[in-house]
Amino acid sequence: MIERLRALWPTRPIKLRSPVAAWRGWVFALFCVLFAGGILAYVGISLAPGLIDDVQMRNRARPVQMARIEGGRCSSRLALLHSCEATVVATTKEGLVRRPLNHVFFDLHVGGWTAQVLADPERAGVFSTDIGLDRIWHRFGTALFFIVIALVMLVSPWSHLRRAAAERRRIATLSEQPVTPVALAIQGWQGQVVTLADPSGASHRWTMPNKTPLFALGGGYVLGVTGASGEAFPLDEKLRWARLTDLERAALKQARPA
Fold it and tell me: Transmembrane stretches, by residue range (predicted)?
């Protein structure tokens, strides 16, 4: 069958295109940067100031009698990640003080929470709770975990972009030389990466949308093209990755047995 396809393949140079458009990688990278920026902003604005204050006061914190907690609420995820938000309202020498608190931490806990207001005797208007001070290292670890997630999201898209650019260069190299149809054996899919083997047994890895329909030849083989460089590139079911005419596509599809 591959011989029939070769006989129908055009003799002119055929332009090939990448299965994944370049703009998709940049959109993914922009999303990761914005999401990571949101995480870092959340840590820097919502978590870090309270952590810094609590580290400074943790060895000298004292209970406060003339204080109350308004809007205190703790939520949990899988009994591991807890977020406790509240506003401390206290009477000081400067008058009535309202201080919002946000404690986020990993800890194994089931059930409700009770909190006591604590103050820094050396800094007026600085308050915390026993929940936050008792779990201050949990809070540090949680903030660090969020920062690591953000850094991973900042780094991962660039490795994806580099790989995509390298694949486009490989495809461009094939497009600059005469190519011939070849049967490629699918060795497996891993996420968006498919591994194929050419007739010589050499493996070729390409990135494409998950489970993209390829031009099947039967028996676990798909149609691809190869050139003098040794690269072997698969073709999609609709033959859109090769710049062919509609008549050429129809002839190739008709030559494939049902």
Answer: 21-45, 136-161
Bridge-partner residues for 122, per DSSP?
Answer: none
CA distance 69 to 98: 10
First vs last C-alpha separation in the chain: 12
In angstroms, the CA 221 to CA 184 distance is: 5
**pLDDT tens per residue across span 74-85:** 888 888 999 999
What is the pTM assigned to this prediction? 0.69
For helices 136-175 and 22-42, angle between their N-to-C axes, nearest 10 degrees: 170
Question: Residue 197 CB: number of other CB atoms within 10 A?
Answer: 16
Name the E strands within 178-249: 180-190, 193-197, 203-207, 216-218, 221-226, 232-234
pLDDT in tens, 157-213: 888 888 889 999 999 888 878 899 999 999 998 888 999 999 999 999 999 887 789
